Amino acid sequence: LAEFVARSRGVAEALGLEFELLEPPALGALPARPVPLEVHVRPYAMRALLDGVEVARGEQVVKFALGPGRTYTMQIEHACCTPFVREITAEQAARAGELRVSLVPRPARLRVDGDPATRIFVEGEFVGTAGDSQRAALPVAVPAGGESPYEAAARLVLEPLDAPPRELRIQLRAGADVIVPGPGVERP
Question: In this structure, which long-range contacts are made by residues 69-77, counting pairs with CB atoms below 8 Å and at least 24 apart in sequence?
Fold first, then answer.
């Protein structure tokens, strides 16, 4: 190394240039490598964003790389679920190593065609009238205990004013529309 420095100094002087030997930066001053973070998502990430930039699509395991010294906003989206949003630093990611995220299902949206006065019960609970559902879909939670927290069968009872109640089994899907014909209404 000393021989290289001496030759470099000689070349610089011959060219009329100043020569200055710089000390290498301390190890702690070198930029740190990004910290990997794996996020296991259920059901899966339709889109995953880091600071608003899409980094994955259609993945069950999303891989992030977080540089040190700042806070990132991680967002995981699926059409049937409420977005998962979390702020995280590289230091937190290094400690965690991986995250497991079960996205929270959105309620299904129920509409009932027919007489607006028809009362609607799902799993024995009054949720509104057909008229209410015709103005705006009624949010109905997917019942627990099904094969999936994102889809399950439910018992629906329709009580018209001028006819006996009608009981149906319907399939509720998180975030999806369910349209049911009321008593006396034919499906097209």
Answer: 73/49, 74/39, 74/48, 74/49, 74/50, 75/48, 75/49, 75/50, 76/39, 76/41, 76/45, 76/47, 76/48, 76/49, 76/101, 76/103, 77/45, 77/46, 77/47, 77/48, 77/49
Which residue shows structure tokens 């891989």? 63
Q: How far apart are CA 39 and CA 62, in angstroms?
A: 5
Q: How far apart are alpha carbons 93 and 65 in whole angstroms? A: 9
The two structure tokens encoding residue 40? 């296991």
pLDDT (tens digit per residue) in 112-137? 998 999 999 999 999 999 999 999 99
Q: Structure pTM? A: 0.69
pLDDT digits (tens, 9 = 90+) for 67-82: 998 999 999 999 999 9
Q: Angle at Cα 129 formed by Cα 124 and Cα 132, nearest 5°?
A: 130
Is 140 in contact with 133 (CB distance < 8 Å)? Answer: no
Amino acid 25: pLDDT: 53
Q: Nearest 5 degrees, angle CA 70-CA 60-CA 39?
A: 25
Residues 6+ apart with CB under 8 A from 128: 120, 138
Strand partners for 137: none
- At 30 the pLDDT is 45
Which residues have C-beta within 8 Å of that of residue 13, sequence separation ≥ 6? 19
